[in-house]
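Researcher: Structure prediction, please.
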Amino acid sequence: MGDFNIRNNNWDLLYLHHSTHMESLKDIANSFNLELSTPIDQVPTQYTDNFQDMNLVLDLMFLCANTEEFNNYFILPSLQEPSDHILLVVHITIEKEFIQEKK
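Model: Predicted structure follows.
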């Protein structure tokens, strides 16, 4: 996940255009067997202080499509400070048999 600084109407419904960089980003993600995930609530992830500018969706999360976490992450606008970007949160369950215990 991260701030990709790519505007595209595939993830920002208020933006009316496709970016030429979107396909490259998706190709890179696919090379790692990841797909663009959709948050539970679709809201902007970058907020501007200037009321004349639009808030944007620039922060994206790529996950394995066949997992419980895919299309199941949160954007938390209440945790914005001090950045102009919003926190993206995903809960990943780790099965106990994958955890090695050491004493």
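Model: DSSP finds one helix and six strands in the chain.
Researcher: Thanks, that helps.
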